[in-house]
Amino acid sequence: MLNVPPQAFPGPSSQQRAAAGGRGKVPLKPGRSLMDWIRLTKSGKDLTGLKGRLMEVTEDELAKHNKKEDCWICIRGFVYNVTPYMEYHPGGEDELMKAAGTDGTDLFDQVHRWVNYESMLKECLVGRMSAKPIAAPKEISTLSEEKKQLNGMVPEKKAQAASAKDLIPSYDWFQTDSLITIVIYTKQKGMNAELVIADCQDKRLRGEIIMDDHSYLVEVDLDHPVQEDMAGLFYRKCKLVSKTEVTHDTKLFCLMLPKSTHLHVPKGRHVYLKQIIAGTEIVKPYTPVLPFLPLNFKEPSHHEGACIYLMIKIYSCGLFTQALDHLQIGDYISVSNPEGNFKKTQIQTSEDVFLLAAGTGFTPMVKLLDFALSEVSCLRTLKLIFFNKTEDDILWRNQLEELALKDKRFEVQFILSQPTKDWLGKQGKISSSLLSEFVKRSKKDSKVLICICGPTPFTEQGVQYLKDLGYSQEEIHAFTA
Ligand code: FAD
Ligand code: NAD
After folding, report:
1. Distance 68 CA to ligand 1 centre (A)
2. How far apart are CA 463 and CA 451, in angstroms?
3. What is the SS3 assignment for 374?
C-alpha cells in the first residue's frame, strides 16, 4: 500500500485558498428576479430544447454550445443549457459566458459554491458528460490564460499539473456549507465506484482509491494533523439490521454501513469482521453476497451501497460464528476494507465459466454469477458445480434452480457427499472423474475460467485435478485465505 503522508487541509496551493472573494452583482432587468426564474422553471416550458430527453454529452459536443443563444456548461459531470437562465443570473451574462461550452466546475465553486445549482438549474439539465465518473476540474487547462487569472487560479500550479507525467495521483478539494468534494486525479482508466472507498468518522475524512496493485490514500482532518498509522486494515462499525435464515445452520446477515461511508466490495473479494470475544480481538474473513440472486440480467445489479450482505454458516462450536449469532438487531460490528486477489478482468473475456463451490465456498460465486450473466457479453456457458453434504445444506437451491430455468446459459449441478437414500442426483466428493464429466469447453478453443472455493483440502485437490486434466494456471482461480 502506498501511504500518502498526512496532508494539511486545505493544502497550501489548494484552489480553496486561492479562491476569489465575493463578486459584484449586475442589475437584473424587470421580470428577471429569482422568483421569476422559479416561476419559469415551473411553467412546463422546455428549457433545454430537448423535450425532456437526457443525453450523454461528449467534450466535443459540449464545446459546440459556446454562444449566448446556445450555451451549455458542465458542472460536476452534469451539463446544463444555461441560455434561458442568462438574464436571470445575478452575476451577469458575461460571468456565465466564461464557462460556455466547457467544464465550469472550478469557476462555479469559486464564485457560487454555496448555491444549490442542482435544484436551480434542474429544468436546464441536458444530461451527463460521457465517460467521466467524477467531475474533474482538471479541464481548466483548456481555459485561456486570461480566464485562469480571472478565476483566481494560480497559473504555476496548473502548469505544474499539466507537465506532471508520472502516475502518482494528486488531489484537490472544494467545499460548500454542506458538501466536501475531493477530486483525485488517478490518471487511471476504467475508474468506477468499486475502486473508491470513503469514510468519515468524527472530523476525519478518509478516501482510498484502489489502483492496480496498491492504494492511494487521502486522509484529511479539518482541525488536527492526521496522526493515526494508516497501514493495515481500516474498520468501520456497521449496524446489524437483519438476520434471515438461509438453511438450518446458515444465515444472511445484513450490515448497514455508516451514512458517511461509501464502500462497494468488488466481486471475488472478502472483508474481515472484527469482534472482541472474551476480551480478545478476533478477526475472520467473510465474502459479501447479494441479498438474492437476480433473475433479470438486462442491467447490472446495484444492490449494494448502503448495506453489506454476508451469508454465514454458524458452527455449533465455532468461536466467531457463535458470537455473531448472538448479535442482536441494532448491534454494531467492525467491518474492514475489501481484500483479495481476484480481478474482474479474469472473467470479463471468458466464454465458458465453471464455478466449483463447496458449502459456504458458494459465497464468492454469487457476485461472479451475477456479473458473468449480466455483463460478460461473450459468455456462452456458466456452470455451477455445487458440493454439499446433504440436501438441507444446499444454499439458495430454489433460486439457483429458478435461474437455471430462466437463463439458458446457466446450469447448476448439485453433488452430495452424505446424501439420504432418496437422493437421485450425483453423489461423491470432488474427483477427477466428476470434473472431467462436468468441466468441458463448449468449443475446442473457447476461453475458460474455472473458479474454485471451499474447505482447503477441497480447493487443493480440485486445483490438482484440473491441472491434471490439462487446464492451465491462468484458467483456474482458487479462492483461499
Ligand atoms: P472456529 O472456532 O474456527 O472453528 C470451530 C469449529 O467449527 C471447528 O472445530 C469445526 O468443527 C467447525 N468449523 C469451523 N470452520 C470450519 C470449516 N471451514 N469447515 C468445517 N468445519 C469448520 N464462512 C462463511 O460462513 N461465509 C463466508 O462468506 C466466508 N467467507 C470466507 C472467506 C475467506 C477468504 C475465508 C478464508 C473464509 C471464509 N469463511 C466464510 C470462513 C470463516 O472465515 C470462518 O472460518 C468460519 O466462519 C468459522 O469461524 P468460527 O470462528 O466460528 O469457527
Ligand atoms: P462442509 O463441511 O459443509 O462441506 C461441503 C462439501 O465440501 C462437502 O460435501 C464435500 O464435498 C466438500 N469437502 C469437505 N471437506 C472436504 C475434504 N476434506 N476433502 C474434499 N472435499 C471436502 O463445508 P462448510 O462447512 O460450508 O465449509 C466451507 C469452507 O469454505 C470453509 O472452510 C470456509 O473457510 C471456506 N470458504 C472459503 C472462502 C474463501 O474465499 N477462501 C469463502 C467462503 C468459504
Report:
1. 65
2. 9
3. helix
